[in-house]
Amino acid sequence: MNKSLRKRCLKFFMWIFLIFMALFAVVPLLQVFLNSFRTDQQVKRMPLGLPEQIIFDNFKDTWRIGEYGIAYLNTLLIAAVVIIVVLTIVGLGAYSISKLDFKLRRFFTAYFFVAISLPSFLYIVPDYSFLNKIGLVDTRAGLAIIYIAMQIPFNMLLLKTFLAGIPRELEEAAKIDGCNELNSFLRITVPIAKPMFLTIALLVFVNVWNEYLWSNTFISTDALKTVATRYVRFTGQYGSNMARIYTASVISIAPVVILYLLFSRKFIEGMTSGSVKG
Fold it and tell me: How far apart are CA 22 and CA 257, in angstroms?
């Protein structure tokens, strides 16, 4: 077998593998989406199949029963606050660790490495005790503080890796033109790192949107519940209605899927550029 034929065969099997993996990921999601338009009887009779007729009432009833309107509002509000705070702290922190020379530079880098190596659930009891003492249990603010603390370590190191690849000469040139360190960061570093900031924002949003353990532990009032905790209502009290369970799944994951479809190229660009620069 000559080299050209071997290369074509390798490419053929690679495409077969990629198509198989794509189908492996897409087909279950597609079936969940189709089942959300079927009746409960149809789903139980044949879990894998096409709708005999489109049932839109599933979405109306599931949205009402799950109280997804207020859940969406709560989750979007918390996610927006977390994204803004995390981008601010991570941006300034990663710039300091990667660009500035100070005594605790290596300590902070090691600290964030240790932080991402420990399971977050280890902190759930002390965090609950602390927030309870200051009156932030069962509040959006308390949950937002928890999420901010959880999202900082990994994203700090991710952005630090990217910023370390930006030549220091660019910031030095800005200083010659009269910029201080903060202006140099805002005018030089931030525009260059926009893809990575967008990537971090998407990662934080997805993590906040899908998070269940902490939101279910710290939030008990129905009016403050997030989207992830609403899904449990259909696996418990309304667990016998399979059509609503599938519909609740679609309602819960729809924003994440839409964001991925809209920003997948930017997300991949940010991750790959970070790895190259690192």
Answer: 15
